[in-house]
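[job 0412] stage=complex_fold ligand=JCF status=START
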Amino acid sequence: MAAPTTSDVPSNPVEHTQVLLRRLEQNGMPTADAEEAATLAAQLREVVRFHDRKYYVEDAPLIPDSEYDRLFHALYVLEEAHPELQTPESPTQRIGGEPLDAFEKVAHPEPLLSLSNAFDAQDLRDWYDRCRQGLAGVLADDEPLHLSAEVKLDGLAVALTYEDGRLVVAATRGDGQVGENITRNARTIRSVPLRLSTPPDDGLPLPERLEVRGEVFMRRSRFDAFNERLRERGDAPFANPRNAAAGSLRQLDPTVTAERPLSFLAYGVGPAQGTVPPTQSATLDWLTRMGIPVSSQRARFDDIDAVVDFCEAWVDKRDTLDMEIDGIVVKVDRIAYQEVLGAIAKAPRWAIAYKFPAREATTTLRDIEVNVGRTGAIKPEAVLEPVHIGGVTVSQATLHNADYIADRDIRVGDTVVVKRAGDVIPQVVRSIPEARTGEESPWAMPARCPSCGSAIVRLPDEADYFCMASDCPAQFIRLLEHFAGRSAMDIEGLGSKLAVLLAEEGLVTRLSDLYDLSKDELLQLEGFAEKKAQNLLDGIEASTAQPLHRLLTGLGIRHVGRDVALRLVHAFPSLEALAEASHESLTAVDGIGPVTAESVVDWFAVEENQSLVEDLRSLGVNTERQPEEAPPEARGDAASPIAGATFVLTGALDGFTRKEAKTAIEQQGGKVTGSVSGNTDYLVRGQNPGSKLQQAQEREVTVLDEEAFRDLLEQA
Ligand code: JCF
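[job 0412] stage=complex_fold status=DONE, emitting structure tokens
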């Protein structure tokens, strides 16, 4: 196949986008005419690729996501109708294939080296001097040695091999010599181009073969949202973005990887067949021109002083990026000089990693206070002598729970080690007993709630102590915060500070009071003027129309997060109907187990909660299921129990291959994933089921044998 040329790129993609969008608007896209379909598909692919590049490589999108989605969807529909038009590099073809049993090994043609470390300015200068000495034969003393520096991403190194501009293999670093073939997973990462192209006037043609090296990672914002989703569906969150990226990349089922918000940025090239630029900085520019994203946090320098400044400036700026970085990579810019310098053992002599100082510090633990959470859980918190850690001042840190403190013998007055990772809450890691003076005192959980004074109890099998009072002011403040929060009623402007103010001033003592607030009342609050008061009232008013599952989430019923709320709303058309639901009818809902059912029944049994529901309704808050929340049958769609459901297959079926079973499910609008999670609706078990069966049983997932599966397919 010929190398892709740039001649089929529309001469003005921006205009072309508008033409296509208008066409979509007027006559919908798909066409029965095969020739017309082929032309359209090619045009859509180019336009989608163009916008991918604007978004992922240049970080400068030109059209709103909704317009992009329409183009993408049109391409998808067109290719579905004309499968002969699909190409492996089409933007629609990122996800596919069966789960693997294991990854294949790939030997790297040239090893992927690691980097030696520099921990301070002196280490950097020493490295620079060694480079100059090593280059004494080719670089005169008065000639500058150009350096390049870039942020060092804390992700996983991968090597992407392109042949004639098409991605053919993606491999992990492994031990540097041999990695794992993760091609199908890498293809699901939107910032990994499936096809390369250069501008028509580029001095360098696409190489016949090129290995691109870079890091796969998860942006911090995406990581937070992803972890939140995991928590909501009852799965364990990842400790940090790096673990999340590693766990996501090493999935045997590429459909799982596809759901993970991974990103890729290149930092260099490996072996190439074809011409490559003469310097590191020109190489990164060239990668960008081919459509490969590289970090924009990089620069070229004439001397080591400027590099030291660059490195030190980043120590305090590292948290301003939406990604974890753990240092700065400094390289001799000219490739010819790199070749002269060569490598030792596992690291090149021509590069070094300046590592940021650890985000740990020691300080004095002044006191231990306790915080009351929404559920009444009492959490100890460290009050610290303020200390500077990785660019921010820390004066509070979590101590998790009473056992954590006791197990580590952490005492008030101790010198303690405090650690901060990314924008995660700082935590006290350990105490340093050697530094004790004898003035320190062991700590015990108080007997009474600091907010309401009622007794604190420890429940069996819980790490936390609880305040059991139903009218505890601190619990209510947390509930109010949660109710107004992003996953619930999403009331703009009502954050934790205002929640405290509204509760403490007595303006809001039950959730329904929010909908009774007057502007006069708000104007009496500190910091409130006309505009702010009106904005808040508008936000509150707007929240009355929120979908029912958001209200349900906001009520803070134990075990009812967003995912459970959605399931409940699917089954019950109003809050009133849910209030009447029996334990039995609740457990009959897919994904609702006895513990959740009991919690729901208990909550609605409390008289105060009943009157709260009544008051919310009479104050105009929506308590009815809205059309878009309705299950498919209520929307007038064919009543398919499969549509929208997530399946996991285990063991061998008699009448289907795995692929046939998967296709059958997908044709009915269901989804097949590789592992059992809180999102799994059905497990289909064949002969010799694996561990997934037990996982499904533990999670109370509906298990279907082959016959039941057949019945379900027939019903649909
Ligand atoms: O961002 C990184 N983690 C990174 C790793 C950047 C680089 O320029 C690297 C690297 C590992 C090896 N360069 C080499 C040679």
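Residues 113, 115, 150, 152-153, 215, 267-268, 329, 348, 351 surround JCF (CB under 6 Å).
[job 0412] exit 0
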